Amino acid sequence: MKKLWDQPKLGNIELSNRLVMAPMTRSRAELNGVPGSLAAKYYSQRASMGLIITEGAQPSAAGQGYLKTPGIYTNDHISGWRRVTDAVHEKGGKIFIQLMHVGRMAHPDNTPAHHQPVAPSAIAPNEKIFTATGMQSIPTPHALSEQEIQQTIADYRHGAAAVIEAGADGVEIHGANGYLIHQFLGQSSNVRQDNYGGSIQNRARLALEIARAVTDEIGPERVGFRVSPLNLLGGVNEGPEAKDLYHYLVTELNQLNLAYLHVMHVGHEDILADIRHAWQHSLIVNRAGRPIEELSDDLNNNLADLVSVGNFSLANPDLVTRLKKKVALNEPNPKTFYVDDGPLGYTDYPEWSKI
What we know:
Low-confidence stretches: none
CATH architecture: Alpha-Beta Barrel
Distance between the termini: 24 Å
Largest sheet: 8 strands, parallel, barrel
Protein name: NADH:flavin oxidoreductase/NADH oxidase N-terminal domain-containing protein
Radius of gyration: 19 Å
CATH superfamily: Aldolase class I
CATH class: Alpha Beta
GO molecular function: FMN binding; oxidoreductase activity, acting on the CH-CH group of donors, NAD or NADP as acceptor
GO cellular component, one term: cytosol
Helix content: 25-40%
Structural class: alpha/beta
Pfam families: Oxidored_FMN
Strand order of the largest sheet: 3-4-5-10-11-12-13-14
Cofactor: FMN
Shape: globular
Strand content: 15-25%
């Protein structure tokens, strides 16, 4: 794992290592979307990671889909996130806040205004979602008009500015895992017949327009973008054109000189190899189900510049120390991933030195 401990540059910031904390929804924000009282401790505990990418924060009220997810569009949100970023920076860490609009993966009961979910097309994902009254079917979403799409892009721009005002080092745009941007990329979720549907170029249009708006607002060196080719979460399927779609998208994003591209990789090696060839900047790869002993394989094989981990970093606030000392890791407890019960399963995982 020797390459993990290099000190790479990402955009204009120096990282302490090549290990990245992947974004993970924790559903622990206050009801107004302000990061919860323990969030600063949770993230600062993991400040030894080369980079922290936070859980997704909605850039607007319409972007929320799950209970108690944080926002990043009001002054209160900014103040809450400032406590988080200050705590991470005090320990020498670097932190990007992820902007996540869930699109159709939502339920009105989970949002303050009880709004109808939105999407590229009025197609429900045929899934259930947890609400305060239990599991409910996700309703058919409202298909965004082109005017509403422009407002969504403006929301991302505003959210990016808020991220920087909150003291973060940068923004990750969530274009993966079945959420709004990914829904526009998918043939199964996008059947529009206007400028945002049909061809590869049209289905990628929203992703690129959001990326351009965000980079114009805060500078490309502070922006990352996440994709998940053929990850079928939320019923999104890019179809047989997936490789060509991502080749086009990544080639266009490459011209924006972003700080990084973040790939949630679920097993399509030809697509990952093509992305590696088309992308000329820092590439983060997160392999689903990757054993800890294979953590640096993509670095060694020149398929990635950094590697991100989810559950390993969730359960091990001192993951860097544990890996360097080659000691056993804490096992994550899935039953507490989304349970808002104070420190339980959140800030109470022990450090190795305290066991």
